[in-house]
Specification:
heterodimer; A: 237 residues; mainly alpha; Four Helix Bundle (Hemerythrin (Met), subunit A); B: 568 residues; Cytochrome C Oxidase, Chain A; two-stranded antiparallel sheet; 15 helices; 2 strands
Chain lengths: 237, 568
């Protein structure tokens, strides 16, 4: 077999290198979330309605000879793509009071989990083992409850505006919040591993990089959620 | 080689026992499959991407063969049906872009050379590096699944609503494949950036990094920042196709232009993922084979970063005919031209490096000269396409096909081969026959130009891309193009023969066969497992005065009386 990993790093070097890698990873993710948020805002502001006015791909005849304004759509049956459904354009999903309430609840959970993981990390660095473990497990629980709350919010919204009627505006809302939720799931996995290791006593005043990295990721999810909330507040009513 | 004559303090290739190289230090399948050694991972990537290149090339030959004659009066083709033709060009594009060009230089050559060139023992995250490779393999398996399930006919661009509702082919596996390959690319990018920031040996400041590393740095920035957007876009398309949720399909209230925005936000910067590492190889080769310090080091280094940054703001030039507002198109057009500036800075610096140099026409240099010629044509024809008025005429014609093949093949593939021939002795410890290497390069060069130059003519005369057949006026161009494609094949077969011969019968390579001053030539060929026992001494990477020819080893050795000059 091969010799071991060539890097035999101190905890400080490990923190430096893995921390930089994580920051780059978060930079990449921030482009991902920026894309979903910008997509949501642009669609909600209705910019896209004016950019796809023809409805479906024009036929060869239409493309070459043009269509007089107001002419009936005689080629509808053979058209690739269909005329945009007017109903879909007009259905602007407004976030009702009860959905806002649900979102507010989710926000409280998210903010609280960010506070608890920060507290857990600080406790670890100060050598308060019990307090560290308590706050770490609290974070895991808050993260899980956040996901439950989000699923509840989606059902609430779907009940008010069925998915099929919501069209693009509704889809971008699910897309944006769903992407965030997926990354919360993706955060719960390493967080679970860290909890497992913490129970096994693998962290101490000298060994803390794993906890710090998970904490950074978690704070990032928190910031993204707040930005999404701002976007919803700005254009989602 | 002799180390007894060197003065104290001079750089000496570390003398290693014969068996201590990365190829021989352990054996067996698992020692490769589970390796954390960046060099072995690089070699595995090399085999993998060359396999993908072969597959994509076969599809291209099938296309060119079919187009030798137009379809007959009943609409029957030479040997393909129109549907099969659509699948061939889609798979050709998707496999070449996602499985070959994007990983070719960074993942295969970069993985092998980057840490050695930097003077480090490995990349920052060796395990993540192996993960990247296996993700590539999983992505490739998805593309094989596409082949099994009867192909893909959306083009490599997956434009909606055709891809989301109309296409009856295996779109979802192809999307998942590209999605997974994206992760592979992101992880490679993160790994390289962290390595370049955190693992530089003492003395290796940013402005002492060889230009290949600057190119990889700029590439990695794009890989990390742009690829996630492709990921979410492809995932949205999977969701729309699988569950009928309207994001891009106008029939469901979606917006197909939104797909194009998202797709090109990644895929235009991805063009620079393809070309930046290629340009970076050319910088190395031209300096070494002109026996001259690179001209304008800082300009070349910074222009890589500039291209990477500008690349994020020009995606709209793919959408001049997509119903984008004229204002947006104007801005995108203007920004597109700005990319020409850093590209031209590089080209002029290469030319100036060659000026009054002692040019050695070794195989890597022949490829580098080919690159200069082909990339100049590819780059300049891009300006016609960045101009809104001419683009309306040229959009979706063979002019576009010819343009991007001049950049992707004439640029990236030529640079890849230049790099492969440049570092081949280092990677495998064997020299190759210069004569057949150069003949292969020249035959491929002629074949390439014969394939794609006629396509500029037929494109500007209106021949649309992706068509199964054509009107008789275009026949002569198509036939020249097909003959060229087979000539290119012959050239590449000579290359393959040459490299296989080198592995079987090649002479043992010296540590520094070309007389370059970058650090990868300071260790033996092939490098020992940990590259360097101690961090090597770092100097100006292009000060070629530090080495001199040694007839005994048939390579260059460090000059014993070398004193670093302060002028560079």
């Amino acid at each position: 077999m091969q010799p071991e990993n060539p890097h035999d790093w101190s905890e400080a070097k490990q923190a430096d290198v893995s921390g930089f890698g994580l920051k780059l990873f978060l930079a990449g993710l921030s482009f991902l979330f920026a894309a979903t948020i910008v997509g949501y805002v642009v669609v909600m502001l209705g910019g896209s309605d004016t950019e796809w006015p023809t409805g479906g791909t024009p036929t060869y005849e239409e493309a070459v000879r043009g269509v007089p304004p107001g002419a009936p759509d005689t080629a509808a049956a053979t058209r690739v793509g269909t005329l945009r459904q007017p109903a879909a354009v007009e259905a602007v999903p407004t976030l009702s009071g009860s959905v806002w309430l649900g979102l507010a609840g989710a926000t409280v959970l998210m903010l609280a989990s960010s506070v608890t993981i920060g507290a857990a990390y600080r406790a670890l660095r100060r050598g308060q083992g019990k307090r560290f473990l308590r706050f770490l497990i609290a974070t895991l629980a808050l993260g899980a409850v956040f996901l439950v709350a989000q699923v509840f919010n989606w059902f609430q919204l779907a009940a008010e505006l069925p998915l099929a009627e919501g069209g693009l505006r509704s889809a971008t809302f699910y897309l944006m919040t769903g992407t965030h939720a997926l990354h919360v799931v993706g955060g719960l996995v390493p967080l679970g591993i860290v909890v497992h290791r913490a129970i096994a006593g693998r962290y101490s005043v000298e060994r803390w990089v794993g906890v710090r990295n998970v904490a950074w990721y978690w704070h990032f999810l928190d910031v993204v959620w707040v930005l999404m909330l701002v976007a919803m507040w700005a254009v989602g009513h | 080689m002799s180390t007894t004559t060197t003065a104290p303090g001079a750089l000496t290739p570390a003398v290693q026992p014969e068996s201590d190289n990365y190829l021989k230090n352990s054996s067996g399948f698992l020692s490769w499959a589970m390796t954390l050694d960046h060099k072995r991972i690089g070699v595995m990537y090399l085999v993998a991407v060359l396999t993908a290149f072969f597959l994509g090339g076969m599809f291209a030959l099938a296309l060119r063969t079919e187009l030798f004659f137009p379809a007959d009066s009943t609409g029957k083709g030479l040997f393909l049906t129109p549907d099969l033709y659509n699948q061939m060009f889609s798979l050709h594009g998707a496999i070449m872009v996602f499985l070959f060009i994007i990983p070719s230089i960074p993942a295969a050559l970069g993985n092998f050379i980057m840490p050695v060139m930097l003077g480090a023992k490995d990349v920052a995250f060796p395990r993540l590096n192996l993960w990247s490779f296996y993700l590539w393999c999983v992505g490739a398996v998805f593309f094989l699944a596409v082949l099994m399930q009867g192909g893909l006919d959306t083009g490599w661009t997956f434009y909606t609503p055709y891809s989301s509702t109309k296409s009856l082919t295996a779109v979802v596996p192809a999307l998942m494949g590209a999605f997974i390959l994206g992760f592979s690319s992101i992880f490679t990018g993160i790994n390289f950036l962290v390595t370049l920031h955190k693992m530089r040996p003492p003395g290796m400041t940013f402005f002492r990094l060889p230009l290949f590393l600057w190119g990889l740095y700029a590439t990695a920035v794009i890989q990390v920042l742009a690829t996630p957007v492709l990921g979410i876009t492809l995932l949205m398309l999977v969701v729309e196709r699988s569950f009928g949720i309207g994001i891009f399909d106008p029939a469901l209230g979606g917006d197909p232009v939104l797909f194009q925005h998202f797709f090109w936000f990644y895929s235009h910067p991805a063009v620079y993922i393809m070309i930046l590492p290629g340009m970076a190889i050319i910088s190395e080769v031209i300096s070494t084979f002109s026996r001259k310090h690179i001209f304008g080091y800082r300009f070349i280094a910074c222009s890589s970063i500039a291209i990477a940054l500008f690349g994020f703001f020009v995606w709209g030039h793919h959408m001049f005919t997509s119903g984008q507002s004229p204002l947006a198109s104007t801005i995108f057009s203007a920004l597109t031209f700005s990319v020409a500036v850093p590209s031209a800075i590089k080209v002029f610096n290469w030319l100036t490096t060659m000026y009054k140099g002692n040019i050695v026409l070794g195989a890597p240099m022949i490829y580098a000269l080919g690159f200069l010629f082909l990339f100049a044509i590819g780059g300049l024809t891009g300006l016609f396409l960045g101009t809104m008025g001419t683009d309306i005429h040229l959009h979706d014609t063979y002019f576009v096909v010819a343009h991007f093949h001049y950049v992707m093949v004439g640029g990236t593939l030529w640079a890849f081969l230049a790099g492969l021939y440049y570092w081949w002795p280092k990677m495998f410890g064997k020299m190759y026959a210069q004569r057949s290497a150069i003949v292969g390069s020249i035959v491929a060069f002629i074949g390439f130009n014969l394939t794609f130059f006629p396509q500029f003519f037929m494109g500007s005369q209106g021949m649309p891309r992706r068509y199964f057949t054509y009107v008789p006026e275009f026949q002569i161009y198509h036939q020249l193009s097909t003959i060229g494609a087979y000539t290119l094949l012959v050239g590449l077969l000579i290359v393959a023969y040459n490299l296989v011969q080198s592995l079987l019968k090649g002479e043992k390579a010296p540590a520094n066969p070309w007389g370059a001053a970058t650090l990868e030539w300071q260790c033996t060929s092939p490098p020992p497992y940990y590259n360097f026992k101690d961090s090597p001494e770092v100097g100006d990477p292009y000060d070629l005065d530090r080495v001199q020819w040694d007839p005994k080893t048939k390579g260059y050795v460090n000059r014993p009386d070398y004193v670093p000059s302060a002028s560079h």
